Known about the structure:
CATH class of the largest domain: Alpha Beta
Structural class: alpha/beta
Amino acid sequence: MRAEQHYLSGLDLAGRLVVVVGGGAVAQRRLPRLIAAGAAVEVIAPDVSAVVQGMAEAGEIGWRRRRYSDGDLDGAWYAIACASDPAVNAAVGAEAQRRRVFCVRADVATEGSAVTPAVGSYEGLVFGVLAGGEHRRSATVRDAMLGALREGTVSEAPPAGEAPSEGAPSDVAAAEGAAAGPPALPGIALVGGGPGDPELITVRGRRLLARADVVVVDRLAPRELLDELAPHVEVIDAAKIPYGRAASQDVINETLIERARAGKFVVRLKGGDPYVFGRGFEEVLACAEAGVPVTMVPGITSAFAVPAVVDVPVTHRGVTHEVVVVSGHVAPDDERCLVDWAALGQLRGTIVLMMGVERLAQFAEALLKHGRDAGTPVAVIQDGTMHAQRVLRSTLDTVAADAEAHGVRPPAVIVIGQVAALAEQAQRAQPTRE
């Protein structure tokens, strides 16, 4: 007897309530795509991972900090039951059944009324693969299709007026054959994920991520990429939320080494470039001392990429011959500070300040004290390259007050210098439309 097949459909969840019960690793994987789809997401869980907490604090999702109770699906269009307690998931599924709300059971897929396909996205094309509950098979085909699309071995459509040759192998079949792939890799790959947009990770970084057994991920790494991982991949949250809870660097190092020694291929996925205020070389040194091989994959640094996407070039001919990237991790008067703020105040070029939102008033005061002009243009870019990106344009003497008034929060890149005003020049130069 032929087994029943799922009906694959695309849901328009923009502005519609989606309830996610549970705030652990499964929720962390599923939430980014729900957010990107514009869903009004409510997470119900007494505790959540650091990444999920960061989404809630950023206002991307709602978080009811309690256990699930009957009635929580009132008004929902879609539900995901991913609590650690199977009894809770069963209760969510039962309520969803009564309310005729499609529900995914993360613990027992066959008990839900919907399943999550292995989803891939490529230049506006979104596709899903279902394999009757064989998650590794669907993820393998999805990964192969993504790889084939990126490498150009699979076309998105046949040429105009041309049909596929009769009897020719299908793209899916070819991709399944290619999915056997190379053998497992040893050790650890330190991968820079770029400034946040999943399309800005390097090709090599994405390829290695697709071959990972374990992924140790930071909060600022591109979150949507986690949803492309095969179900068997272990995702370890090493999020460092600014001025909040943080995973000890020693614990992160030990985790990387322990998993690698167990024969797993580990990808350490970090935001930006691991060597630009990312503590990446600390992890390389720890692994080297333990005798674990490390593959370094540089990433696009947020210091330069984030300003670029809002038309702020950190250098420009005739405007600046220098750019300095500065950490704002500690205040100018802190004994741990290694920055010569007196020298920075005398510069005429560009200063890119990272991790500087919390102490922006102190940094601005130090630059003004040491000679920087009060009217120096400043651009503050929050959540650069992400869907929540926003830009504040100000001047050095008022930027701290302006940032506070507009509720600017980390992560944000702060650009100080004449280049911060060039975006307005570009806008004025654009031809007007009648």
